[in-house]
Amino acid sequence: MHNDISEIYFSEQDLADRVREMGEAITRDYAGVAGSDGIVVISILRGGAVFTCDLIRAIDLPLEVDFMAVSSYGNGVKSSGVVRILKDLNTDIRGRHVIIAEDIIDSGLTLKYLMQNLESRGPASMTVAALMRKNTENQADIPCRYVGFTCPDKFIVGYGLDYAERYRNLPYIGVLKPEIYQ
Ligand code: 5GP
Ligand code: MG
Ligand code: MG
């Protein structure tokens, strides 16, 4: 285990198993609607990238993947609620079935903003696949169809999630020792 990690929450095997199940659920649910155009998976950079890459390989349907980069945290550990689009989609999602692939829902403010923004582009449908949802008080009410894990309100890193751009490459998800960010 990495020296800056106090505890492993979800092992590499836990993640692989759960993401596979999420992909299978999406495959079942969208088999009737995907059509030949397929679905559009929108990956929210940068935290959602690792999850997305595993998730799409577990979905057995025609699909496109596109990326959007948003910033809500800066280098801190709490969401500011002010969301900036740093990179927009290249895909026109009008009339398409969209699944947003996000790493974790904390305050829910990022997704709330994103869903409003994407809804205004006229997709045929839109759902959210979040690898994790934190047990946070006052979380925005986000309809999230696919949730991998519920997790406690602690700052975690790995499997795409960073602290100050580090630790994204850890193959597991773990709790960062508080002395690293205090
Ligand atoms: P929210 O807007 O829901 O508060 O959180 C937005 C983003 O903050 C998440 O998509 C994720 O990228 C990041 N985030 C939230 N909680 C954590 C955490 O515990 N660890 C890390 N590394 N990032 C988090
Ligand atoms: Mg994210
Ligand atoms: Mg981050």
Automatic annotation (TrEMBL):
Protein name from the UniProt record: Hypoxanthine phosphoribosyltransferase
Family annotation (Pfam families): Pribosyltran (PF00156)
Subcellular location: Cytoplasm
Keywords (A to Z) from UniProt: Cytoplasm, Glycosyltransferase, Magnesium, Metal-binding, Nucleotide-binding, Purine salvage, Transferase
Similarity comment: family membership: Belongs to the purine/pyrimidine phosphoribosyltransferase family.
UniProt superkingdom: Bacteria
GO cellular-component term (any): cytosol
Major subcellular location class: cytoplasm
Gene3D superfamilies linked to this entry: 3.40.50.2020
Top EC class, one word: transferase
GO MF annotation: an example: magnesium ion binding
